[in-house]
Amino acid sequence: MDPRITAAPAPYGFREVRSWPLLTIEQLPALRGDLEANLPTAESASLDAVPEAIVLVASELATNAIEHGDGPAAVRLLERDGELLLDVADRASGTTPRITTDPCASGGFGLVLAARLADAVGWYATQAGKHVWARFTVETREPSLTA
């Protein structure tokens, strides 16, 4: 396991903004579009590349969940002061997320990408399945006091 990927429950104190059930890879474009529409805008936060990173990580983790997760998957976007959390669940509670840097390997790059783009990445299993989460910091901008 990559040291940047923690075996731990998702951080506490986040509230759900939106969730998406996924049955097939064909649903990923709709997930990406709707996720982007539900992220804070540049007017309310200083995001820089955060929206693109969140959409990319969600797409990668959702693809992994659908392809390797024993059935349907679910993606949730959660928030708390200055942070966003992606939680991607599948039904493969008996499998450990696999990370690889081998270009000939089949898969494993989504977690490497998530670890590079998110502030923290982790995973945990329940009886119902496995969750992989990624936390992103979003710095809110002070309002302008120009007259």
Describe the structure.
- The protein is 27% helix and 31% strand.
- Helix 1 (28-38) runs antiparallel to helix 2 and helix 2 (50-68) packs antiparallel against helix 3.
- Strands 1-6-7-5-4-2 form a 6-stranded mixed β-sheet, covered by helices on one side.
- It contains 3 helices and 8 strands; from the N terminus they run E-E-H-E-H-E-E-H-E-E-E.
- Strand 6 (120-125) and strand 7 form a beta hairpin.
- With 147 residues, it is α+β, with helices and mostly antiparallel strands.
- The protein has helices spanning 28-38, 50-68, 109-117, and strands at 5-7, 15-22, 45-46, 73-80, 83-90, 120-125, 130-137, 139-140.
- The chain starts with a strand and ends in a 7-residue tail after the last strand.
Keywords:
single chain, 147 residues, alpha+beta, two-stranded antiparallel sheet, 3 helices, 8 strands, 27% helix, globular
Summing up helix and strand content along with how strands pair, one would put the structural category as alpha+beta
The gyration radius over C-alpha positions equals: 16 Å
Provide mean pLDDT, rounded: 85
Instruction: Encode the helix/strand succession as letters.
Output: EEHEHEEHEEE
Helix content: 25-40%
Shape: globular
Layout of SSEs?
Layout: E1 5-7, E2 15-22, H1 28-38, E3 45-46, H2 50-68, E4 73-80, E5 83-90, H3 109-117, E6 120-125, E7 130-137, E8 139-140
Parallel strand pairs: 1-6
Antiparallel strand pairs: 2-4, 3-8, 4-5, 5-7, 6-7
